[in-house]
Amino acid sequence: MDGGTTQPSGWSSEKLEQAAQKLEAQLLEKPKDKPLKKAVRKLRKDLLPMLLKYEQYQMLLGDRNSFSKTDPDETFMRMKEDHMRNGQLKPGYNVQIGTENQFILAYSLHPRPTDTRCLQPHLEKARQNFRGR
Asked: Which PANTHER family match (predicted)?
């Protein structure tokens, strides 16, 4: 993971780490400064871990709108209604299958929720499969 990834706020985990180190250096000079101790503790325990987690999520997300924490390759998609009649967003893949006379010629899995953005990559994969034979 790149610690220098910049966030919309302009802060990165690298910059926040440097700020925490500066405050810790000040704390060594003034060990009884309670507001300074509190600021360092908040940086180390709350802010820095959250920012690192956020940066990791941003990397996993890529150009998608969502991902599943249990399987980062999955994307949340609106699934068909189940027996309870409540259509929900659930993690899943978009499966594309190309057939000819009921024979499967090619298949592909995509993290995109719509078929329109899956057709071209699917056809390209099928074309590559047949060129190799």
From this structure: TRANSPOSASE, TRANSPOSASE DDE DOMAIN-CONTAINING PROTEIN
